[in-house]
Specification:
This protein has a single domain, classed as MFS general substrate transporter like domains (Growth Hormone, Chain: A, Up-down Bundle). Helix content is 78%, strand content 0%. By secondary structure, it is mainly α. The C terminus is likely disordered.
């Protein structure tokens, strides 16, 4: 069996540069480079639509890959280096560009980065149910990878404002990309995939229909979309919340980010234990509801100390979602394989991102609401009450999404029906 810690290094390698970019790139282009929030939001909508379309395609191609090195590993060996290259380019726009040229560069970097990122993450995530069998082994492996992923978040998000303040964002992005490159080498050299069935399975459309015929999977898709809406808003909004609502410096912003992720480190093992005691699915639903409740204190906190306490509670609840989420999906993939005789982790892991990307349009619209409701346009024109604007962004939208996700998780767990029968195989592509 693959060593779970070396497998977990892949999470570290992809998360370290990726989460720094996801958390600060929007802030960098709007607040530092002066790109209007309307243009930045339009770019996010365009790349989100494209990314939603390509997710199932890349997942299906991964499932159908047959090489002597496995299905997923060859993809990772090609895409991860490109992922790191686009990370560096995204932080390094040509000097002096602004207005529409800056918009086009921002859009090009988003599309390039997200395309390569999708290929990398789908092939990495699908290895969990392939390399580890059973809830106990998967909970431990997932706890290990999410723990290293949290370490990368503490470094990539918590330290980025400090490093960028000293070195600038372009050099900071290069440092994170180089560190990720070293980690991924150790990960890829340890992966030993199980031999895939010789039959490549049905075509893309048939696979999509069969996956979505599973009622529990449809509930899971809803939960995943809700989590992604919340996480994206919380991570991207935190620098703004710290600056405009709490009046913190860049260094204090790092403390606030660290307060989210440091408690999550022991929280990973706590939730892995909870999952073994009460069941993975119950722990998953509980974590979602606690995560929703943890956003409420952000409505009233006004100091760094209060912000740190609120962020720590959020980090503990978030750890539960991280540890249990993929394990719940892996169990569904096992059920699908027993039902159809085909293992198609790529389809199951990619379709959830299709709907999450569509939900990403709502995220972009939320940023536009800051202008409509509060008058925030950019760092050059923050409006009369930016503090209230970012309380709204950090609580109302993520909290509502997580509460809906918790309800969907409860419905997922209560469903007792059987998966629908497989679709006809006439359209199979061999």
């Amino acid at each position: 069996m693959t060593n779970r810690w070396r497998y977990a290094l892949g999470e570290f390698a992809l998360s370290l540069p990726g989460n720094a970019l996801n958390a600060f790139l929007f802030f960098y282009y709007t607040d530092n480079l002066g790109l209007a929030v309307w243009y930045a939001s339009l770019a996010r909508i365009i790349y989100t639509i494209w990314d939603g379309v390509n997710d199932p395609l890349f997942g299906h191609l991964s499932d159908r890959t047959r090489t002597r090195w496995g299905r997923r590993r060859p993809w990772l060996m090609v895409t991860v280096p490109l992922f790191l290259v686009f990370t560096v380019l995204a932080w390094s726009p040509p000097g002096g560009i602004e207005g529409m040229p800056l918009f086009w560069y921002f859009l090009a970097m988003l599309i390039g980065f997200e395309t390569i990122s999708t290929m990398s993450w789908i092939n990495y995530n699908t290895l969990l149910p392939e390399l580890f069998v059973g809830d106990e082994a998967r909970l431990k492996a997932n706890a290990a990878r999410k723990l290293l992923g949290t370490v990368s978040l503490v470094l990539g998000i918590g330290a980025t404002p400090v490093l960028a303040g000293q070195l600038g964002y372009p050099l900071t992005g290069l440092i994170w990309a180089a560190t990720g490159a070293v980690a991924v080498i150790f990960c890829l050299t340890s992966i030993r995939e199980r031999e895939a069935e010789p039959d490549r399975g049905p075509g893309l459309w048939t696979s999509l229909k069969e996956a979505l015929s599973y009622v529990r999977y449809r509930y899971f898709v809803v939960v995943h979309a809700c989590i992604q809406i919340a996480l994206t808003m919380l991570m991207a909004g935190m620098p703004f919340y710290a600056k405009y609502t709490l009046g913190l410096s860049d260094g204090a912003t790092s403390v606030l980010f660290a307060a989210v992720f440091v408690p999550a480190l022991p929280g990973m093992w706590l939730w892995a234990w909870v999952g073994q005691v009460i069941g993975t699915r119950r722990a998953w639903a509980l974590a979602l509801l606690l995560f929703a409740a943890s956003t409420l204190p952000l409505l009233v906190v006004g100091t760094l100390t209060a912000g740190v306490i609120s962020a720590a509670l959020m980090g503990l609840a978030m750890a539960g979602c991280n540890v249990t989420h993929d394990v719940v999906l892996s169990g569904g993939i096992d059920e699908d394989s027993a039902r159809t005789g085909v293992r198609r982790e790529g389809i199951f892991f990619s379709v959830i991102w299709l709907f999450a990307r569509v939900a990403g349009v709502l995220q972009a619209v939320s940023w536009v609401l800051l202008d409509v409701l509060f008058g925030y346009v950019s760092g050059d024109s923050p409006g009369p009450n930016p503090g209230a604007a970012f309380r709204f962004l950090m609580v109302v939208i993520p909290g509502t999404a997580l509460a809906l996700g918790g309800v969907a998780a409860l419905m997922h767990n209560r469903y007792r029906g059987k998966a629908a029968a497989p679709a006809a195989r006439a359209a199979q592509v061999r």
